[in-house]
Each structure stands twice: as C-alpha cells, then as structure tokens.
Specification:
Length: 563
C-alpha cells in the first residue's frame, strides 16, 4: 500500500484513499457511492483551496502600510509630472482604474480596522436620568430595514412591552432586545404616554443610530437557536386578509407550494419563518400548524392567549410588493360536512387539514431505484399520448407499468407485454387484496394497474411513468415510490379570437372547469404543472423534467428520507 509523505496535502490524501477503495460483496453499493463522491473533481478543487487558505493563515499576514490608496495616487501624480514611457502610461492607467482604487480602499479600511459603525457619544445627562430600577441603554444602527420587533401596551401596568422579536431583524441580530423588555425612550423621547402605533411610527422614521432606553425583563432569555425545520405550504396565506394576525405588516405572505424555513416555534400560535430562496434576513409571522388546523376544523376565530391583536411594529409596508394577488382559497367545512370526522392527524391528502408538510432535500443516488413519475391531467390533456411518446423516444430509460385486464387476448398480443391477462376471479381477488392503485371497467372488461407492475419496471432500473386518476395519488405517495407528480393541462384560450377552430365553447368551458377542480382538490400534491401548448413542446418539457429528476435534488416529505 502506498505511504503518504509528511507534506502530503488533503487532495493527495483523498486521491490515495479513493484508489484504495475496493468494493466487496457485502458493501459494494456503499463503496461505489464513496468512490463516486471522492472522485468528484469539485471536491478535489475544494481540498486544494482549503490547503492554500491554511497555508496563508499560518503565515499570519499583516498589512505593510495603512495608506495604499494615497500612495497609489502619489505614484500616479509623480509619473504624470514628466514624460512617460509606454510602461509608465500603462501603470498610471492601472493605478487610476476604478476597480484597483476600490480594492486599495478596502485594503486601507481593513488595515485601519475602520469598518465598525461610528456611534455618537452618549448624552452627558443620561446617567442622571437613570432611575433606581435597572435600566439598559441600547444603541443600534438602523438603516432602511425595520427594527424587527413588535410592541404592545400591558393592560395591567400600562407599560409599553416588547411583544415579539423577529428572527433575523436588527433587534435580534444585536442580541440586546428581548421579549418582555419595557420600552421607556426612543432617541431621548419618552414613550410612556404614547400609543403603540405612535411609538411604531417614531421607530420607523428613525434612521442611522437609534438609542433605546429599556427596563430589562425580569428574566432575560438568551438568544434562541435557529431552527432547521423546513415545510411545504399547502395553502395560500395573505397577512393583510387575516384579522387574527398580531401584526399584519410583520406577516409573511406565501403561496401554496412555497418551501418555508421555520426559524422559531416558540410561540404556539404564530411561528416565524422565511421563504427558501428569499434574500430577506428578517423572518415573518405565519400561523402555526395547530392554529391553522383549529381554524379549519372549527371555522371560528382563534382564541389563543398568545394572539396579541394590539401588537404594533415599525414595518411600514416592509412587505409591499410581495403580497399575493387573488382570493385566498378556503377549505373550511360546514358543521354538516364535519359530522363523523375524528379530527385526528393531518394527512396532506385530506382537504380538511391543508396546512404544512415537513419536507427535506432528496437527490437520487447512483444505483438507487428511480423515482416514480405520475401524470395526472384535466380534460383535453391527452396525457397517455404524451407518456407513450416520451417512452418511445427512449425505451431503455423509461417504461410504463403493464396493466391487468380480464378481456381475451388478441392473436398478436403477448401476456406481460401489452397486458397481464387474468381471469375475472383472479382480478376480483386482487382488488380485494388491494393490489391495484386504480381499476375500472370498460365494455364489460376489467382493467387495472398494480403495485407489482410498477415495482417490476423499477427493478430493471428504469423510470416508471404512469398516468392515473388524481384519486390514486394517496395510494402512491409512499417512501417506496417517492412519486414526482406532474399535472398536465391544456392551454385554454380566454379570448374568442384565439380559440381553437372547431372546439365548441361548451367543451372549452368544461376543460377549464376540469383543470380548476383538480387544482382545488389535488393541487397541494402536485410537484410541477405542465401547460400543454402542443404535443411537441409538451414532450420536450416532460423530457427535461425527467432528466433533472436524475440529476438534481428536490424537496420531498421528510418521512420519505428518514432511515
């Protein structure tokens, strides 16, 4: 076995380790996986970068001087004072370029350690104003962003209390403002007799340095650890339409299908969350799962003690431009519809409890069975034609689950190719044993697609593509299949001028209603909507989706990836 030298780097160690991996019968898949990971060129580059940074760190570099910018200006001025050669002209051009000036300016700032915000000195009379009770002076640098805290008036004492600190906001990042703190002054202005909305306006108008006089809460809680919980929203939420929210401006609007990172669940009623992919540092308020389920179940306004309708903040339309257009869809049930419901659990397929679904990132590993691809479609989508066309283009990678039927076999057909031909007695027995994901009757013959037919395709390391009625999605949403659901619907023109010739208005309306109905009932289970303009473009789009499924990571229910 080769021996590493004393000066061997991480990338050399990694290369040696990779060369020593020898798959055996018991751990073949694990070894192949490790070898693939260690052989990644990007990982090798990262190891080399790591080594260079460590070498640079060990040198303990320090700035040679603190005025590189002025020195460069002096050199350029000296060179320009007399005749210049070609090389000197080029040097002057480089020294005067905006990019190099910016680099030298940053160098000087870091060298002088002049990058901390400059705060004005405390007023001389601050110490005289401090009362006998413990008071702390908090000074923050606040630019255009909100402070990230809400306040309320305590009914018993009349004091202005910090009701909530928004994760990621200026107040939270400072670590100096806590829930329960009593606010006395803002920039030297007493707020004892001001209304919360007046105080919020005062805070929102303050820019730059802002000084707060605060009486700390009896028990100051330390900064809370940020949660790493991710959830898929199963409903639309518009804070401006929610009268129950403590602070509408601090609410986080989201659409069904958005992935939310829940950063705080300390409040049982209102969680703090961020939308994955947003650049905002500050979290927003969303109704908790328990709170939303209670609203949907009882169809009543929430009466949680943590709901503080008198909270005010300095957001001043901070989320403007991000509100979701359209009406909020309600899944609330009438008393009659709720009769017989146990209210237990929160199945994401149950429209009575469409709240959130815990999710995690998942990417198909090498030699792992491909994910099941499920197509559902509204009237006019012709998804079977789309499926067959994609499979015909690449039968080595994609295949269809061979259905079962009770009809007689035709002379040119082979059992297990076009269909699995079975007797009616066998078919009925399979139905009783729940072997079919869906089944039905056509011209007095039974047809059905079985679970085993899907497994048979996946066992060949092919991606199985099935088209089913939306009702079958519940049966397929398992960790075994990890289905990726694509909703195919034809583009139905609204304008009379653009309508397809020969298609009656009644048919277009029926197609439109079919798509709306499926979206309302099953849209929360859909991973991708494919608008079908024509067969060629729809086929190309579907082909691209299938390729990405094997190469990229996707959000899936967390129960699918738990070991």
């Amino acid at each position: 076995m080769p021996v590493l030298t004393a000066g061997a780097g991480l990338h050399e160690t990694l290369a040696l380790l990779t060369s020593q991996l020898r798959p055996d019968a018991n751990h073949k898949e694990d070894m192949v996986f490790l070898k693939d990971v260690f052989s990644e060129r990007s990982l090798g580059y990262l190891m080399k970068i790591h080594e260079k940074l460590r070498q640079y760190e060990r040198q303990s570099p320090i700035p040679v001087l603190h005025s590189a910018s002025s020195l460069a200006e002096d050199v350029a001025e000296e060179l320009q004072s007399g005749p210049m050669s070609t090389e000197e002209k080029e040097l002057v051009h480089l020294l005067m370029s905006p990019h190099l000036k910016a680099v030298l300016s940053v160098h000087d700032t870091v060298a002088q350690k002049n990058f901390d915000p400059v705060l004005p000195p405390l007023p001389d009379d601050f110490e005289d104003e401090l009362e006998e009770e413990s008071v702390k002076i908090v000074r923050l640098v606040k630019n255009k962003e909100p402070l990230g805290a809400t306040i309320r008036r305590d009914e018993a004492s009349g004091a202005v209390i910090v009701a909530r600190v928004m994760r990621g906001g200026a107040a939270d990042r400072s670590g100096l403002v806590h829930i329960g703190d009593e606010l006395r002054e803002v920039n030297g202005v007493s707020v004892i007799h001001k209304r919360p909305d007046e105080i919020s306006q005062l805070l929102s108008q303050s820019q730059g340095s802002i000084t707060l006089k605060i009486i700390p809460a009896i028990k100051e809680e330390g900064r809370l650890k940020e949660s790493k919980v991710y959830m898929r929203a199963l409903f639309d939420y518009i804070p401006l339409e929610d009268k129950a929210t403590p602070c509408q401006e601090a609410g986080l609007p989201f659409k069904r299908g958005d992935i939310l990172q829940v950063v705080s669940q300390d409040d049982a009623t209102w969680w703090q969350a961020k939308r994955v992919g947003d650049s905002n540092l500050r979290a927003g308020l969303i109704p908790s799962k328990q709170f939303q389920e209670r609203s949907l179940t009882l169809c009543l306004p929430p009466l949680f003690p943590a709901c503080l309708p008198t909270e005010d903040c300095d957001c001043e339309g901070y989320f403007n431009g991000q509100y979701i257009a359209g009406l909020r869809r309600s899944f609330r049930l009438s008393r009659k519809d709720r009769q017989g419901s146990t209210g237990e659990g929160s199945d994401p397929g149950d429209p009575e409890f469409l709240t959130y679904e815990d999710v995690s990132r998942y990417q198909q590993r090498p030699n792992e069975r491909p994910r099941l691809v499920v197509l559902i479609g509204s009237l006019g989508a012709r998804i079977n034609e789309l499926k067959q066309r994609v499979i015909a283009e690449n039968p080595h990678r994609y295949a269809v689950a061979v259905p079962h039927t009770t009809r007689p076999k035709k002379p040119h057909e082979k059992d297990g190719v076009e269909y699995h031909f079975v007797t009616k007695q066998q078919f009925d027995a399979d139905v009783l044993n729940n072997k079919f994901i869906e089944h039905g009757e056509y011209k007095e013959n039974q047809y059905g697609t079985s679970i085993e037919a899907i497994r048979s395709v996946q066992a060949k390391n092919k991606m199985c593509i099935v088209d089913v009625q939306p009702e079958a999605l519940k049966r397929l949403r398992t960790a075994e299949f990890k289905p990726y659901v694509i909703f195919v619907k034809p583009r139905v023109p609204e304008s009379r001028r653009r309508r397809s010739p020969g298609v009656p208005d009644e048919d277009l309306q029926e197609m439109r209603q079919s798509a709306i109905q499926i979206d309302q009932q099953y849209g929360h289970l859909v991973d991708r909507v494919l608008i079908k303009e024509d067969s060629a473009s729809a086929c190309a789009e579907l082909r691209g989706i299938l390729e990405r499924l094997e190469q990229e990571s996707f959000w899936v229910p967390i129960s699918w990836v738990r070991t």
